[in-house]
Amino acid sequence: MSRLLHTSDWHLGRTLYRHSRDEDFDAVLAEIVAIARESRPDLIVHSGDLFDSSRPSWRELMRAMRALDQLAAVAPTVVLAGNHDSPGYFEVLGYLSGPSRGRGLFFIDRLRPPHDGGVLTFDACGGEQRIRLAVMPFVHPNRFWERSSVFGTTYTDYAAAMRGLQAQLVAGLHEGHDPDRDVLVFAAHVFVAGARPSSSERNAGLEAHYAIPAEDIPAVAYAALGHIHAPQPVAGVPASAARYAGSPLQLDFGEAGEAKSVVIVDADPGRPVRVMPRPLTSGRPLTLFTGTLDELQAMAGQLAGTFLKAVITGEAADAQLGRKVAEIAPAAILISATPAREASPDTVLDTDPGDEPDLPDAFRAYLAGQGLTGSSAEDTVNAFARLLGELDEENPAPAPAEELLRAAVAKTWTEAP
């Protein structure tokens, strides 16, 4: 029986309201390595967003490579580039630490044809079986921009374009396929329609027109998905099983109380797989508390070592409220303490003063303050979010005006004699 370990969305370098999460990352990565050593998989797949930034610091690079080296000592380890990762960095890491250097690390920097790294084959069960893995790192919508004779440059149907790319990978996956020996796996960093997002994903990548229909996921033994931070299965797919491994830590307070995990998958050729989520317990949890100061006092012992966001009821606005909460729960890391407030029709942004809204949400609030609401505001916010998504791109698509200018320069008008 072949065994796969699936992890995803580490987001190394992520902070929480300017608080470092280094201690939490070190603890949870050590736990993942321990699970790998205990479960002894034939292959380890990381389905994207290794880093939180496309320009990670040397500390994040070292933290990633130490953990990945330890995993690769257990089994070949494949890491897909997610929307937060830099394909250029991945190419360098693959050159320095990949199979060409005798290491069992495979960095999938860009989408490649099946015969050029898009499909990988690994021995399993001592060579009795094989895992054939099709890999689809994050594909930015800019890849599908096409010139229009009327409007310059427009988006094509993202789902349809992705369907074509997946078909090429699946064709390569089945080339030379031995149904009595091979276990077929598809790994991708994508947003599948119907998946339940957390609040910590980049909103620009979760717009409905960038979603992949569940039925488009290839019919394989297992689909190892990344991009969504809440661990969950995906229903309605042709694959025997499809799952988001999720992030290993609670990344913001929208994930407070959310159980995190890695996934172990056992598979035999031609049979349904057995999917076994393994809970992760390392890392300091995030706690959202709403109640009175007396109720906070009653549960103070449970808050030691947690990141705490407290909304206190029955209290008026008080400059000393934060001090009172800190004295009641001194072993917690206090992020914010605010009095409960009633909703107001004038409220534009439904967050407390300690929250740090995403830029698109802040921009939406700004537009509302300027009197722009409804569909016009949403269209403007969506355009703004797409531009933000392009900031991490090494080769962003040109703007329509730039394309028109290039065309005009290439065909300069000259005065007739």
Features of this protein?
single chain; 417 residues; alpha/beta; Purple Acid Phosphatase, chain A, domain 2; Double Stranded RNA Binding Domain; 3 domains; six-stranded mixed sheet; 9 helices; 19 strands; globular
Structural features, described:
- The protein folds into three domains: 279 residues, Purple Acid Phosphatase, chain A, domain 2, CATH 3.60.21.10; 57 residues, 2-Layer Sandwich (Double Stranded RNA Binding Domain); 72 residues, no CATH class.
- Helix content is 27%, strand content 23%.
- The protein contains nine helices and 19 strands.
- It has a six-stranded mixed beta sheet. Strands 7-8-11-12-14-13 form a six-stranded mixed beta sheet, with helices on one face. A three-stranded parallel beta sheet has the order 17-18-19.
- Helix 1 packs parallel to helix 2 and helix 7 packs antiparallel against helix 8.
- The longest helix has 18 residues.
- It starts with a strand and ends in a 7-residue tail after the last helix.
- About 4% of the residues have low confidence.
Q: Helix coverage percent of residues?
A: 25-40%
Q: Give the low-pLDDT segments.
A: 147-154, 347-355
CATH top level class name of the largest domain: Alpha Beta
Please provide the count of β strands.
Answer: 19
Rg on CA atoms, Å = 24 Å
The arrangement of helices and strands along the chain is EEEHEHEHEEEEEHEEEEEEEHEHEHHH
Number of contiguous helices: 9
Classify the beta-strand content into a percent band: 15-25%
Straight-line distance between termini: 80 Å
